[in-house]
Input
Amino acid sequence: MIHGEYKSFYEALLPIIPKERMFHDALSTLAYGTDASFYRLIPKLVIRARNEQEITAILQQADRQGIPVTFRAAGTSLSGQALSDSVLVIVSHGWQGWQVLDEGRKIRLQPGIRGGRANTYLVRYGRKIGPDPASIDSAMIGGIAANNASGMCCGTSENSYKTIADIRIILPDGTVLDTADPASCAAFRTSHAAFLEGIAGIAAEIAADPELTARIRRKYKIKNTTGYSLNAFVDYSDPIDIVKHLVIGSEGTLAFISDITYNTVVEHKHKALAMITYTNIALACEAVQILKAQGLVSAVELIDRAGVRSVDQTPGIPSFLKTIGPESCVLLVETRAATAEELSERVASITAGIGNVATELPFAFTTDAAEQATMWKLRKEMLPTVAGMRRSGTTAIIEDICFPIEKLAEATVRLREVFAADGYADAVIFGHALAGNLHFMFNQDFATAAEVEKYKKFMDDVVKLVVDRYDGSLKAEHGTGRNMAPFVEYEWGKQAYTLMQRVKTLFDPKGLLNPGVILNTDPLAHISNLKPIPSTRQIVDKCMECGFCEGYCVAEGLTLSPRQRVAAFREIERLKASGEEPHRAAEMQKLFRYAGEQTCATDSLCNLHCPVGADAGKLIKEFRHESHSPRGEKRAVWLATHMAGVTSVLRGFLKCIHTLRLLFGKRVFGALARGLRRLTGGALPLWNEYMPTGARKFVPVDSPVRERKVVYFPSCITRSMGTTKAYSEEAEVTRVTASLLEAAGYQIIYPEKMDSLCCGMLFSSKGYVEAGQKASDTLKTALLAASENGRYPILCDMSPCLYTMKANFGDVLPLYEPAEFIERFVLDALPVKPLNEKVAVFAVCSAKKMGVDPCLKRVAERCAREVVVVDSNCDGFAGDRGFLFPELNEHGLRDLKRQVEGCDEGYAVSRTCEVGLSRNSGLVFKSIVYLVAHAAGIDTRK
Ligand SMILES: Cc1cc2nc3c(=O)[nH]c(=O)nc-3n(C[C@H](O)[C@H](O)[C@H](O)COP(=O)(O)OP(=O)(O)OC[C@H]3O[C@@H](n4cnc5c(N)ncnc54)[C@H](O)[C@@H]3O)c2cc1C
Output
């Protein structure tokens, strides 16, 4: 329930922001409150803002009422800066605008674009954005710029601070400043003269103090994201330039970033990588200093012995790493060049340059992409492996410090001493050595006061080591957040800290933007508001709530993302166990049914992209399973063992519906169907014009005996669902598939009792485990027999069914997805001539999970003039979800119409998804087999 000042805040915004995008219920506030850090604050109100007008209205209302506001992009921050216990404004959907400028040398980006996506816009220009955090595929531009995030290659020269060309910001008073627009700058100079004077005043004070100026310059020679970007005052003289750079790294505490223009950097095609082992870290660091001085490398990643040990069991990791010495250290050294010749020269110079530093094992640079990928795997596996090894109920902590590079070796040894003294001996160290930036990772229990105290003591010791001994940075790239806010003054000293306070007051006099972040007077802020991580279920216990899953989840932005599902589930379980806040627990549980359970596609795409292998899709399947009564389970088993009857009833039902539609016409029947659905409270599926009629019963005919044989299993879906009105003159997909196979010279073998077979997905996706297993076992037996124990390839015409089959018995049978089979075995056997058509293709999530999604595109390219690949991870149809919760399907395909503009037809490999794709685009989608058949001149008519 929203009340008090937040109620009036909410009501004041209602005329501007629809209530569907403002949340104050117990479930949404908890779910949206979660970011990747180990802190938790629960906002009173969450707003999904979509444009500048809304941001301005929020900021002005906040100013009027004195209510704090925090912005959130992807919420992958690790230091607690994307959280709020007041108003949290999500800036992702709706902030997707971009424009490539100056032949790719610049790019203008809105804050909701993920970094990896921004780079895809630049590929054709051979360029990329400078900042390269490891989280780039998930993190969004707003967060990348506001954290001044960086990564393996960008160092201190290609981060947002260094590569920003222009920025458009909204100040807490609602004023917009666009530094790319001279008129905006001129107006700002007049309207905010006093503010700019204040900025200029700080710059003058710093300039008048050579010692402070030198210290600021020195501190930014290495990576530093502790406090505000004071280097703006020494690097620039025009106050607007200073403002532009101060906003970078300000973690949403100074202004809202509405868009940013980056100067892009060259993305060299030619790369060489070497894994070099040294017997100790001092030697490795000696090599790092030479590499730094040479300036020929793009990345040097250091991994200490404990780090190597944590991953040396990972499949694919070079075996020699198991045998290196107890103090050894590994460097991954990468160099890039515009041409192969230049690359060879670089490799030669680098090798000669570090030739005098003795290595433990001989090394060589490789230009082979696969070998490089294996080496990078070592580095990339570190985080998930360490996090994955943690005890259930504990938190994975990644720290992020930076030492002057000449002190790196000594500092690393001292750091290990601190680990040993404070009880963190198994912490692992890795990092961007070239920039002096080390991450260390360990797993922390925050469940008891003693453990919290242990962490506090450790952090105090780390702070002293970094600051007192080396004048390093307490945060190199992850941002100060709440985690280092209590130590900003310690690192920078009183004078610089006071200047930072003045910066904050100038921008945000009432202190309403993201309070508690960067500057925080509470000395215990770093150990306050710790997020509880209760042990719940094994399938999600490893989840770090990092948010890497969110970009791949079809429900994200409609209801809950996988991370939010896990966070909500954990909190519900915690409340239930502790008996705390029973009303809140009950409210959350009630809302979770729709937001968490019913609108989950259970496709587990989240699992595919989860660093620690958590699977929210499986969790939801477990819930579905547990919600079934024993009678329901029995009914499901009965259905699974009577599939011939089930498909026959379904065929009849669909034919009936189709006949009624033809009788009444589209409008009347549509209205009737909608009315019935409303009357039944959504229990009846939503009808749409692309619903198929029932298929004619597929009766296999004996195929002529041939040398080439294939087992064809038509799924229960394609045996039941026929064509739609839009292509009713054509035969069903089962018949077209059979024609295609025969034309390609195959003898088709059908499994015995084909009509009663099913892969089991129909049942298992709804949590009917036993029924699913029974169906799967029967199918496996039938396919083993039909294929003579796997002698012949087996084709199924539905990608999702094939995926289920692969998961259940893919190890014993050669199973093929339609597009994959066509590409490998059919295309070359047919006289295919590309049709003069522009077609759209959509690889359903199961094809993506099996890694065969590129086959669909390649097949279509052989058969049509132009191919548009629909850019969406999952269409959200998810079996029956598309009929029962069509909003999920609509949300998943919200951008489809625009993408398929000008296409003649659409193709996929899932009959149910094709219904949703057609409904949401107006373009008829059908199986890829039709396109191939047409291109090969095969008659597909009934
Ligand atoms: C596994 C893992 C690996 C990581 N690796 C790296 C790494 O290599 N390097 C690195 O630097 N970081 C890394 N991070 C941290 C994090 O991913 C990055 O800092 C990232 O840039 C944050 O982006 P985001 O979109 O998630 O921002 P959020 O977390 O949503 O927000 C970050 C900050 O920006 C502010 N903000 C967001 N949008 C706006 C806006 N429009 N205007 C003003 N302020 C805004 C927020 O208030 C917040 O303070 C990693 C995180 C994880 C979980």
